[in-house]
């Protein structure tokens, strides 16, 4: 039972991180825990969108 709960928690954590990443890519910025906005540079956005080569 503990293994199942741990697996579920890991999956939820990864899902949340993926949703945050997609939001950054869509919006071009993120807000940190101090409510400060940080802009993702165009090269960073391109790296996520097209992959690193």
Automatic annotation (TrEMBL):
Specify the protein name.
Uncharacterized protein
Task: Provide the taxonomic classification.
Answer: Bacteria, Bacillati, Bacillota, Bacilli, Bacillales
């Amino acid at each position: 039972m503990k293994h199942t709960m741990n697996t579920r928690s890991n999956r939820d954590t990864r899902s949340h991180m993926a949703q945050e990443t997609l939001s950054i890519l869509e919006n071009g910025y993120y807000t940190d825990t101090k409510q400060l906005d940080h802009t993702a540079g165009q090269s960073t956005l391109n790296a996520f969108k097209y992959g690193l080569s």
